[in-house]
Amino acid sequence: MxxxxxxxxxxxxxxxxxxLRIRAIDSQGGAIPQATVQVQCAEAARIALTTNPIGxxxxxxxxxxxxxxxxxxxxxVQETLAAWNEDRPHTVKLDPAMVRNSVxxxxxxxxxxxxxxxxxxxxxxxxxxxxxxxxxRLVPGAFVTHRGVLGYGISTxxxxxxxxxxxxxxxNADVLIVVDGRxxxxxxxxxxxxxxFSLSDVSRVSxxxxxxxxxxxxxAMGGVVEIDPIGPSRQNETRLTASLGSFLTGQxxxxxxxxxxxxxxxxxxxxxxxxxxxxxxHFREGDTSLSLGYDFSDHWKATLDGRYGRFYVEDPGPVxxxxxxxxxxxxxxGFSASANDTYGWxxxxxxxxxxxxxxxxxxxxxxxxxxxxxxxAQTFVLSPGxxxxxxxxxxxxxxxxxxxxxxxNFGTHHIxxxxxxxxxxxxxxxxxxxxxxxxxxxxxxxxxxxxxxVGASFSxxxxxxIGFDASKGFRNPTLRELYLFPAPNPNLRPExxxxxxxxxxxxxxxxxxxxxxxxxxxxxxxxxxxxxxxNMVTLNAGDAINRGIEFNSEWTPLGHxxxxxxxxxxxxxxxxxxVPANKLNYSVAIPVRGLTVDFSGITAGRRYSDTTxxxxxxxxxxxxxxxxxxxGEHSTVFxxxxxxxxxxxxxxxxxxxxGINATGGFTLKF
Length: 670
Known about the structure:
By secondary structure, the chain is mostly beta strands. The protein is built from four helices and 42 strands. It is globular and about 70 Å long. It starts with a helix and ends with a strand.
């Protein structure tokens, strides 16, 4: 009887409703007031609410919760929540019909709040091994180069270069990677190090296509990839994911989170390794992170996030090259400390951040790099239909480099930059939304630059909407281009780009939606190296016009069966090497009596393999099959087959990708 009584009390406690706060935001994080939020709690009837001036609604609810969020000028989003955090709002991003395309990706295995969303695509279902993998497999306009099963590498034959709509540069400095709100790039080279972006401490990845320089400044010319860590957890939970497969390729991720009074925390650790499909293509990587959160009051909260990783990667060289294989060892850490405020008429944050790295390459190159910065941003509700964002940031970055043997010293160099930015969003009436933004950035090397953007979106009906946008982006020369190699030029100027685009969104039924974007981008003063070493010069001598169209669709024909597809076509007057003009993404998810079958693929057209546009790499199709089966409430087993069709293709000349290969693993939650 006592056991029965305790079970009854537990059932009643579980049935008690808890507070759910929902915040509707746009693709840049701005609040969406007057959005319609339809909520169905457990088996209760559906109710409709309207967001307040800071884009929020609050109600008491029991899981599971079904949400349908819509707003004028935005495509609707549907989600199902299995749990939520009472201490912070659950954000719903309405982005496809907005003036800027953005795609959210959720790591379902690591997410502190399990989410199934029409906009959020599960990384797990694609079989992706890194955050960059997920971006390429889920965003048609994004392309990432590879050279093996694991390990992008660095230096001459390094890959992991990400381009968005053909804009990326080599090294990869035109697409900005933002981790927990801080720009993450190697201070001297100016590009990210993709092998550090494992999935050990990732809850969400957002991709913005097109310039985001008003918000983030330099390097956000082609777009932004924002990586959100797991963050402090309100759930006392531990998760372990482990996998092992072909070429002794393994990945292991451990995450633990919980609360200690007002303090919440999460700690993660991850290890990845492979022997590679070729001799001298080994890769080893390990990383760990710690995230702390403290609630001072209902209005003020603080977070502290830190991460450190280290990897060893070998470069076997192109097939048939008799030269000695190279290797590199890198260590990298970063932190961010934030104070966040939320009131009825305003919300924002103050954040300090930093990163550092130690880089060792077998050819003798040695370097250290660092970056430290400060950022503050605040949103104000000026009236129910008028919101203003204001912010400022300050960043200093650089490093020291030398070569061994020989002792040649490239010197120590640093650059400082300060900026202020503001954005306005106005709803003159229900179906029309106008936005504008401006940034002024001062740089210790190049002086000042102005960056504007304007846009509008209009809801033609509840099912159809259209948006327009014009925005400027820029990228400052890197310290490598200014002072290091192969032909440094301290007189280089920033690259610039103007982007114009229009997006049409349609959702004629609850089970189908699609959106199409056309764009025109004008790139000026691109930095190029001309001639052959040692008679080589680096100049602002490149220009390009990029035009393209992107199409995305989602269809749920029945039950939980889900079909997704996307296509991107790019036409450029100066198409960059290794970038395809055509790319097709597709996926099908089918549940079969508990078993989840996910099939996904990428088909890309041929690419130039050199800067002179005289040699090509052929097109390819890469297909992945993932099977997942729950053994109980707390455990799941899975298997992933990559290159399912066993195709032979290359991203980099002389580096054939592995044939068909497989991985098996499990996830435990306790």
